[in-house]
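The pair is quoted verbatim below.
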Amino acid sequence: SRAEFVALLRRAAALGIDVIPEFDLPGHARAAVVAMEARHARLVATDPKAASAYRLRDPADRSRYRSAQFYDDNLIDPGLASSYRFIDTVAGEVAGLYREAGVPLRRLHLGGDEVPAGAWQQSPASQALMRREGLRDMPALWSHFFHRVERIAARHGARLAGWEEMGMRGG
């Protein structure tokens, strides 16, 4: 519960421990992707705008990939504005819990690993973003995503951390 997490943050701070939340994305995000697709399906008939507000997967994406866990639906699409809206909303909620606990949120761990080959190559949303921003390839798209999420984290007072794949991209 929220109260339990706030209590955990306070106890950790009293022990000199920093709790670093991890938002594992753009890969390893299957739970969020599937949940937001279910949200979309529930709301689309009554409120199409709200239904699409947090969508994380381009419904027209025909990209073929398999994650290390053999999923083909576990990536957040960097071409969708709704992906960044979702991340900002979740980061804001987490930052609010830290404020409630009176503990600074210093870092958000992005994860940032295991984006499989083939990701977003046939996503109309990502392809449009690449054309608009002059991004030449998928690594450039991934870096664009990283930098946007970095700005979101900064707005909530945190810096990003991640697995070594983030640093190896040179983004």
Observations:
- The longest strand covers residues 107-111.
